[in-house]
Design brief:
GO terms for molecular function: DNA binding; tyrosine-based site-specific recombinase activity. This protein has 347 residues and is mainly alpha-helical. It is built from 14 helices and three strands. The radius of gyration is 29 Å and the shape is elongated. The relative contact order is 0.08.
């Protein structure tokens, strides 16, 4: 007998019948069955403490159990998984006619804290963008440098980047692909939900893109060169439109070669674009438009990163952050201590 089935033997008959149903009819893996068993054992203990059998528990009891788990330090994600197991059991019991309704249906886990988006510091982002790859592979270096500039300089999603065409066309419109206009220094992209937006391109990004276009126009000597995609802005070694996976791989390699401690992925550069713009401008609406967010609530996530940066600056520099007022023997206030890094009188 497996460990899961041995543990399940401690459960009430209806719970054991459900686990047998999950094993035979749903063909769940042994690991999944073990998790379901642990969820039901936990529920059975809660029910015993409440003095009720499993099938007489109501939503109020399950909410109380959820609150107890949360107060005990269990994560919101862990609680959500446990509730999912309970809902499965009660849904089965309702189908069997053992209960009238599923008491776990409306019970929700606590909302998980939204993690801060990961972003590079300004110095790290600039170091990555200015990193020069091997001179002997000018084709790949020009392409990767242009991709970094568009990801960081324009805040593009990786899907938007690989979907860019050399120019606007009927195919671009029908397929929902974007394109670049180097003369106007802008990229037109189709984001989530098919929303089109125009993103300005800085001079550095435009210069990098011009260098890549010069390399791309040269005779293509790699295998499959005759099949060079005539529309795609960024292509791989065989001439086909580049894939998001290749962008991830090349960006990781470039960040390691540039000496960055954290392996960089495309969305990290998008986060860095948004965070650094907010630090400089504070214009949340403008950043929302540039990122193509449908809701400003999504963009507001970056203000937490910006606040952390501002809080660090305040702690390091503001006279009132670490007040060290001194008073002379006569009782006169000598004023706050000088800001860190500020010149001292007489030196």
């Amino acid at each position: 007998m497996s460990d899961a089935r041995a543990a399940g033997a401690q459960l009430p008959p209806e719970a054991q019948a459900y686990l047998e149903h999950a094993r035979v009819h749903k063909r769940l893996a042994e690991r999944t069955l073990a998790l379901y068993t642990q969820d039901l054992l936990r529920l059975s203990r809660h029910a015993a403490e409440a003095g009720l059998p499993l099938l007489q528990l109501g939503p109020v009891h399950l909410r109380r159990f959820t609150a107890q788990m949360h107060a005990g330090g269990r994560s919101a994600r862990g609680i959500a998984l446990i509730l999912s197991g309970w809902r499965g059991f009660y849904a089965w019991a309702a189908r069997q006619g053992l209960i009238d309704h599923n008491p776990a249906q409306g019970v929700r886990a606590p909302r998980a804290a939204r993690p801060l988006p990961k972003a590079l510091g300004v110095d790290e982002a600039v170091r990555l963008a200015e990193h020069a790859g091997p001179a002997e592979d000018a084709w790949t270096e020009a392409r990767d440098a242009a991709m970094v500039e568009l990801l960081y300089g324009c805040g593009l999603r990786v899907g938007e980047l690989v979907g860019l065409d050399l120019a606007a066309s009927g195919d671009s419109h029908r397929a929902g692909r974007g394109w670049v206009d180097l003369q106007a220094r802008e990229a037109q992209v189709f984001g989530k939900g098919g929303r089109r937006r125009i993103v300005p391109m800085g001079q550095v990004a435009a210069d990098a893109l011009a260098r890549w276009l010069d390399q791309r126009a040269r005779p293509f000597g790699a295998p499959g060169g005759s099949r060079l995609d005539p529309q795609a802005l960024f292509v791989g070694a065989r001439g086909a439109r580049i894939t998001p996976q290749i962008v991830w791989l090349q960006l990781r390699r470039r960040s390691q070669a540039a000496g960055l401690a954290t392996p960089v992925h495309p969305h990290m550069l998008r986060h860095s674009f948004a965070s650094h713009l907010l630090q400089s401008s504070g214009d949340l609406r403008a950043v929302q438009e540039l990122l193509g967010h449908a809701s400003i609530t999504t963009t507001q996530g970056y203000t937490r990163l910006d606040f952390q940066h501002l809080a660090q600056v305040y702690d390091q520099a503001h006279p009132r952050a670490h007040r060290q007022d001194s008073v002379d023997p006569g009782g006169r206030d000598q004023g706050p201590a000088p800001c860190p890094g500020s010149p001292t009188v007489g030196k």
